[in-house]
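Progress against Task 2.4 (sequence-to-structure conversion) is shown through the following example record, which the project officer requested during the mid-term review.
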Amino acid sequence: MDRKLKIGITCYPTFGGSGVVATELGIALANSGHEVHFITNRLPVRLQKSLDADISFHGVNVLNYALFPHEPYTLALASKMAQVVDSYNLDLLHVHYAIPHAVSAHLAKEMLDGRFKVVTTLHGTDITLVGNDPSLHPITRFAINNNDAVTAVSSWLRDETIREFNPNIDIDVIENSVDIEQFSPEVGREWAGRHYCEEGLPNLIHVSNFRPVKRAPDVVHVFAKVLEQEPARLLMVGDGPDLPTAMQAAKELGVSDKVSFLGNREDVNFLMASSCIMLMPSQSESFGLAALEAMACECAVIASRTGGLPDLVRDGIDGYICEQGDIEGMAGRVVSLLRDPARLTQMKQAARSRAVDSYRVEIIMEKYLALYDRVLSQQRNTALV
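Structure tokens generated for the chain above:
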């Protein structure tokens, strides 16, 4: 695309995958000369060090009134979207996570008589969990259908969306991306190693929001099985409902002295760079962004056979795919790699190459730009009729 665009981006401004992907895309677009406006309730985590002349942040203020049972965020967001589009003459809004962002974008578009285009990216639980709840299923289907374009982060998620919602709009698959300079085997390796490594012990790592679907306690059980055969350390990065359960499991299994619970971290790339194997035993994973980031840092990934993970992690090449809940099987894969350093090195290098060759942010950004061009061309062609 030759011309520079004015793009609004809305996402959840958290450590979760959808917010991270949206933020990294916005940064890449701005670095390519496009004007980017983030419209969220607070500054996204990964945007805090990247605000510049081509990235603007517009906070959403929500009225807290005693009559309302809940704060009307969906309406406040729609109002702010319309204001920003109108004030800055945006070409399109790209919203990440259908509920409520796609609904707000539709309302904003109606407020401005369709003067801009809307693209929605589906990330996973907006379809499989939140949107599929009976109370939200009809509005989620409505939100999906009332877009100029819809994308999903994996073929699995596209197929699930079609199966659950039978939308009347085509869904493009555009995978998640990774900044291969920020997530690199060289970034911060010495620093992270100095803080989180014991002499001669390999680091295993798990990064998630510790929701039940991530099965974080399983990671501790896998690690305990590994320690029965090989020495290692485990880094548990993130926070969420299952954190106390995982910590209790480490205590009961007698491995607490070898497990570091580090909470949410902005330096997760440093921690991945100091590790050799990522453990991801998720019950459901639409794509697996943490796995991709670990691969970019030259970590082999041992993951469960669910969602988009088998498409990302090539079994026996970048890591291993195991059945959900197979504690023994995952532990066995870890032990086999720790006992075969040459094989582990080969997998780590293959993982890095896959991230660089297929998922670096520049490649994925070009796919989105092609989609934007297609959507905006429809507008131009209509105007010519």
